[in-house]
Design goal:
Distance between the termini: 17 Å
CATH superfamily of the largest domain: Glycogen Phosphorylase B
Largest sheet: 8 strands, mixed
Strand order of the largest sheet: 3-4-2-1-7-8-9-10
Number of helices: 14
Number of strands: 16
CATH class of the largest domain: Alpha Beta
Order of helices and strands: EHEEEEEHEHEHEHEHEHEHEHEHEHEHHH
Mean pLDDT: 91
Number of domains: 2
CATH architecture of the largest domain: 3-Layer(aba) Sandwich
CATH topology of the largest domain: Rossmann fold
Oligomer: single chain
């Protein structure tokens, strides 16, 4: 395809603090601009005014929306006069390719509708690896039914090509009778490693022998933060040199804050530059999640900053840590197993360093946005004959 054609990336939100899907879409868009491509992002007006803006070279179209399920499910008001105006503006950019993030949002249907209307090729990126859960049997069953019906309609009406952010995500699509065409992996930006580390020892009065662990993410039950706190409380009884830093926010905030003490440090929600500075000063990053992750960004960022990783096995994490040489992979966030893993790394600095370096090299070789955007360019060329 000619490079002057615009790529349109569709995402339900466009704000890096929302979640992995949004970070993926924004990072891809910015790398495309950096490589000289024209990029449009079609998203919701959640937290912002509906309309068009130019943001760092990205043509940003925010659709007016109605919101459901605690504002986590924006529904585009496509017949609103503002939406019609934005659609005309988007069409004038000469869009040549659609990248649709997240399979079960109404935004996805809208983007695929535009692609079909304009006879433009489109792909859908899968970000999950199992059904979402809210730990309520009735709500979970309703959610599974909705996801199956929505996916069946999307396939029947538009027949897009599908890609996963990991092999696990691509494999998950088989649950819906979809054969993925490949993987467009979640990735990191190399420049994020060019930060000044936090001086944690001075800032928090830590001894030179301190070993610093970190959890970064939402404070929800599915992310395993409560077993993590229980495991760390057991660890510090034997190893007072261990310190845990907690970055994030969420419904469990009060429980998490109540667990903070001399060895557990509350940082709250951090912006991206601050998070990169924190990771540059951390020894071990912990992801004790039960959430259906695709390929967790925090594990990729930990590898970029040469942190050792202790993680459960949500989605594509196994693809990064399998074999044991690049981190410690646990089946479930069980406090005893977490404590044992933390203790192993605390007692063996050489093991920490070798695991961290091995993961770092893998990230640089296969999981940077330069690599992913290069793969996208190949997909864009290879799908020139595929129209919905």
């Amino acid at each position: 395809m000619a490079r002057d054609k615009c790529i349109c990336i569709c995402t339900p939100f466009f704000a890096p603090h929302i979640g992995g899907v949004e970070r993926y879409a924004e990072s891809m868009a910015r790398q495309l601009v950096k490589s000289g491509r024209r990029v449009a992002v079609l998203t919701s007006a959640a937290g912002a005014e509906a309309g068009y803006t130019l943001d760092g070279g990205i043509h940003l179209f925010r659709l007016p929306v109605a919101r459901a399920f605690r504002q986590r499910y924006p529904i585009p008001m496509v017949y609103h006069s503002k939406a019609q105006q934005l659609q005309d503006q988007l069409e004038s950019l000469d869009v040549g390719f659609f990248v649709v993030n997240a399979r079960f949002y109404v935004h996805s249907l809208y983007a695929l509708h535009l692609a079909k209307k304009w006879a433009i090729r489109a792909i859908v990126i899968e970000h999950g690896s199992q059904h979402l859960t809210v730990n309520n049997a009735f709500a979970d069953a309703a959610g599974r039914l909705y996801e199956h019906l929505f996916t069946r309609w999307l396939l029947w009406r538009y027949q897009p090509l599908f890609y996963g952010v990991s092999q696990a995500s691509a494999q998950w699509l088989k649950h819906f009778g979809i054969h993925a065409s490949g993987v467009l992996p979640n990735s990191v930006c190399r420049d994020d490693a060019k930060v000044n580390p936090w001086d944690l020892r001075t800032g928090f009065g830590l001894p030179p022998s301190a070993v610093c662990y970190c959890y970064a993410g939402r404070f929800i039950e599915q992310k395993g933060v409560l077993p993590l706190l229980e495991a760390f409380a057991l660890l510090v009884q034997e190893h007072p040199e261990a310190h845990l830093f907690l970055a994030g926010d969420g419904p469990l905030r009060q429980k998490v804050q109540a667990s903070c003490g001399n060895n557990i440090h509350w940082l709250g929600a951090l912006d991206h530059p601050s998070m990169m500075g924190l990771l540059a000063s951390i020894n071990v990053v912990v992801l004790p999640s039960k959430h259906p992750e695709g390929l967790p960004t925090v594990v990729l960022e930990a590898g970029l900053h040469r942190c050792t990783v202790v993680s459960t096995d949500p989605g594509g994490t196994r693809e990064l840590l399998a074999g044991g040489g690049r981190g410690i992979l646990l089946p479930m966030p069980e406090p005893g197993a977490l404590k044992e893993a933390f203790q192993t790394l605390l007692r063996d600095p050489g093991l920490r360093q070798s695991m961290a370096e091995a993961l770092h090299q893998l990230i640089l070789q296969e999981y940077t946005w330069e690599c992913t955007v290069g793969k996208l360019a190949g997909i864009e060329s290879a799908t020139e004959t595929h129209l919905p």
